[in-house]
Model the fold of this input.
Amino acid sequence: MSTITFRDALHSAIHEEMARDDSVFVIGEDVIAQGGPYTVTEGVVDKYPDRIFQTPIAEAGIVGLGVGAALAGMRPVVEIMYLDFITCAMDEVVNQAAKMRYMTGGQASVPIVIRLPCGLGRYVAAQHSQIMESWFMHVPGLQVVVPSTPKDAKGLLKTAVRSPDPVMFMEYKRIYTSEGEVPDEEFLIPFGEAEVKREGEDATVIGIGPMVGKSLEAGVLLEDDGFDIEVVDPRTLSPLDTDTICESVRKTGRAVVCEEDSSFAGTGAEIAAMIAESCFKDLQAPVIRVGMPHVPMPFAPSLADSVVPRVDDVVDAVRRVIA
Amino acid sequence: MSTITFRDALHSAIHEEMARDDSVFVIGEDVIAQGGPYTVTEGVVDKYPDRIFQTPIAEAGIVGLGVGAALAGMRPVVEIMYLDFITCAMDEVVNQAAKMRYMTGGQASVPIVIRLPCGLGRYVAAQHSQIMESWFMHVPGLQVVVPSTPKDAKGLLKTAVRSPDPVMFMEYKRIYTSEGEVPDEEFLIPFGEAEVKREGEDATVIGIGPMVGKSLEAGVLLEDDGFDIEVVDPRTLSPLDTDTICESVRKTGRAVVCEEDSSFAGTGAEIAAMIAESCFKDLQAPVIRVGMPHVPMPFAPSLADSVVPRVDDVVDAVRRVIA
Amino acid sequence: MALTEELAKKMYTDMWRIRMFEEEANRQLGLGNVVGALHLYCGEEAVAVGVCSNLRDDDYIVGTHRSHGHCLAKGADMEHTMAELFGKADGTCSGKGGSMHVADLSLNILGANGIVAGGLGPGTGTALASKIRKSDQVSVCFFGDGAAARGTFHEAITMGALWNLPVVYVCENNGFQQWVRRETVAVVDSVATMAGSYGIPGVSVDGQNVVEVHEAVSEAVDRARRGEGPSLIEARTYRYFGHSPGDLEEYRTRDEVEDWRTNRDPINTFRAYMEERQWLTEREDEEIQEATSAEVTKAVKFAEDSAVPGIEEALTDVVDTAWRVEA
Amino acid sequence: MALTEELAKKMYTDMWRIRMFEEEANRQLGLGNVVGALHLYCGEEAVAVGVCSNLRDDDYIVGTHRSHGHCLAKGADMEHTMAELFGKADGTCSGKGGSMHVADLSLNILGANGIVAGGLGPGTGTALASKIRKSDQVSVCFFGDGAAARGTFHEAITMGALWNLPVVYVCENNGFQQWVRRETVAVVDSVATMAGSYGIPGVSVDGQNVVEVHEAVSEAVDRARRGEGPSLIEARTYRYFGHSPGDLEEYRTRDEVEDWRTNRDPINTFRAYMEERQWLTEREDEEIQEATSAEVTKAVKFAEDSAVPGIEEALTDVVDTAWRVEA
Ligand SMILES: Cc1ncc(C[n+]2csc(CCOP(=O)(O)OP(=O)(O)O)c2C)c(N)n1
Ligand SMILES: Cc1ncc(C[n+]2csc(CCOP(=O)(O)OP(=O)(O)O)c2C)c(N)n1
Ligand SMILES: [Mg+2]
Ligand SMILES: [Mg+2]
Done:
């Protein structure tokens, strides 16, 4: 085990997979210069100069080329500088990458990974702070992966690169510098396996991305109230490990679903609806959702900080769900 | 009252609004030729030759120009030939139209209506049959309107044209030819007001778009079982009239949410999660969702017909929720 | 690729294969055996054939919504293609794709595409793959004149040009974009003009003349295979049928269609060329047409006999569910 | 618009206003009063000023991520603009937009845009509005050289050209696209070349020479106002600062920057031009700079004094909640 950052975990996953498999390549804006805005692809150009493509500003083209290269058997790792810009390539994601296997009756495989730095970063307002996981969840054919720790980041990215189907890989900008223990030996994390990140008896908190860390912090604070929460990290939203989530909720009888994105028709909606349907008899209180209000991200730091869910919001929600 | 088709209702709404307000104009592909694929803009070119623009194939450009014209005080009614092609213009929808008012601190108004023919039509497979309302619901700043009858189509489209904010206007292709009574005098239907389309005591069925009609049919069949269902049509998904939905569910104690789109992270997820949270004490059974399985639309008519929810699926779901 | 007598015969045959396949597909549409959007290629045969006659089996093509011709010219089997239009289990795509998504990955036919200009990015991506692998495969992107207005056209070609990828962009300029004439919605007459924005060669050829198409593409393919980068070729052509079912064809006269059919038919033009060179006897011509007709009949029979897919098929092929990694 | 002495003085002043505003914004970034992405315009002043000096108050402009200069040149107030960068309640956008979204709709400044090439469609749309209304307003779309690769550039200009809209497309070609040199990611040197794809005039001018910019744009604006359609103007320019905070500037040398600052500074160039014509005395120059400096100081004071927006403000302006229709 070594303690490394989330960014380092991604960086080493890419380097390891490129060393392992010649068909893996990197494509995106500024991925050579400074190794991309988050330096995740740093050094790739030195080791694999023929397998990294620094592009014009053309997201539809970037994803489109990635889809074609994947159809031809390559394994592109695409960086979209800010998730918000994937809106410029939604046809390529939704109508091409996601549906190709199906429309060809299983002939085609599109092993593309689209890395999506997302969420609030250094206060860059409404067009540079979005999340939108629920969009990708709703599209059959896409896999949606949301690591919350360096270990998960590494294991899930390596799995993503090996997946025969498209992966939307969420990277919350604010946790790039967070640290955690990562095994030194090679490892993979399967899709569709949630992890219980804290065991507890009184309520289940399902956290997405950075809300996992905040939920764990909330867990510590809630001990003072005498509440012992269980924190479940789905790790992949599609496929979604409903079994692990439901098992926990059946045990605790209470659930809070926490996401940084706005709640309305968001990720938490699916998870809450699923729990409410599957665990109806075991629920002792309504499932509560914690998320951003239904507003774009404001610029002013004071405002931005006020809308992104905090540890306190988790604490409050747990208190409400237990009360 | 006159009995007219859904298509006629839209057609007359556009003609009436164009007569009333010089700033209303039409833009889209083939909107002059044959009056668009669904003939909704038929005759506009004869009456208002300077207010209809037949475009190149360039959805991002079309919506982008619409946003600009709207910012300059015009009221564009944009036709996207198939909803699926809006994926080519998602930046314009999400980052421009939806956020402009907010990012400018309330200075800007973007009164654009984007008409979106959607859902299964004449068997045109995965890239020509999508729905995706839940995407638009999730975007703050967008209003999402889903008429299910000719009357609602007319009243809601007229309201949409007058709205100071962007409207995603869903037109399910399979109901263009359905008929219904429409008032002869001018009328508008406010956003955020659901309609109870059938009163009943035993269970609430929330239907979206064509599922309203199917739910009403199911209602008749279920009378044989001795079940009396209430059918609620939200009519607008954003804003969503949670009061009317919850009032009904509190009365019946049971809810089924029906959509034609795939359920996973879909429209029904939000509605089901909301009901499960708001009506927890009154629910006598879990909220059940009826929708398409999580697959793209297959081409073969036999397959396509097997995945789109039918009247039977509603009947089954109601029996399950009451059982 | 040099135009030998042998190749010419194959090309002539392929043109008939497309013509007869499409006419039959249209007939089957009338009978209700084929449903959905059916974009027919009749009149444009010289383009697909003039292009694909330069390609190897391992070269890539990506098509458009109007792609039966591209697939057949690249070698796709008529029986499975017809079965696909019928929505049958033996279709190339098991009935899940239909006319707008026919594809045969085993022949590197990436398939039709229901999104106008949707294929240009992926097609260019296959060329990127070839470059990375240092293979000498070439990719061809077919697209319509209408597609040239879309942003993806611009973005894809920019990258194709930037990295000198082995790709040939083939515009089928049939003068129409669904129900409108090109001149009412386009700002430049020739799509080949646009090559200037990308610093690549752009040529315009008579798309009714398969020899002209073949030669222009031959040069472009060679250039691409040598690693010298992409070319843009515009073939001026015409479609005989309406855009797809439901087209009232208000944008053209019957006379106009008749004129093209009579005076500029690509099959007639090529027949004359071959006869002049004594590459085709009347007898051979008859044999080709008879054999092709029989092939089409057999394809229809195959499609009719093929099973309707079982409804459980609707739920497969979303992702590869057999794939697993171990933790 | 003719370049009179009076207009030249205003332009010279505006160039200083932008220069000093930007340098101060950068200082405030260092102090932590300004946060987020800050894309500075220093070095490119001649473009915004050369363009906007041809515009009326009711003409439209749309900007880019690097738009403080565009706003100031079109007449935006420095105090509210600075307050916006501070995220304060008195900002032009009440602190909700920030640097990448500054806008002043009352001056038909539709604002900055955080999406590269995101403004070209909306900008062209304002010109469509003017055409429908038969007003003689003109719209200007500013965009960077990087934006010219995006599909929306292609789609928007196609429609601007198709309908002969009153719009001028102004490319600020500063030779960089974030952290890469244009030549490594672009396929044609001059963006003006691309005008050929749209059948509109395309010219390239020295973007460090405000007179040259002014004159080229004057012609384009007149053309647009006369209803003769769009033009594409490329201004070759240079930015003095890094792309935005965090730029290590590995893609250029200090010498290169110094060379532009010393030998091709737009303000120095214009000063020399004015002095030659005896349009500017040393005294006047000093006064202009002092007044501008005072204006900037006042703007900072204003921004500092302005309140932080109340958190309830985060929840307003999503849609117009006051709007209602009656059933
Ligand atoms: C992005 C997108 N927009 C619109 C359509 C609807 N559509 C299908 S084919 C077509 C016309 C295409 O014209 P062109 O590219 O010239 O090809 P042609 O049909 O003439 O072969 C249109 C508008 C589509 N399929 N995709
Ligand atoms: C669609 C999109 N892709 C990428 C970015 C990130 N980005 C912001 S500015 C920029 C460079 C823009 O270059 P250019 O258009 O030449 O403008 P300049 O910064 O040189 O003024 C990039 C890549 C973005 N904002 N939007
Ligand atoms: Mg065409
Ligand atoms: Mg630049």
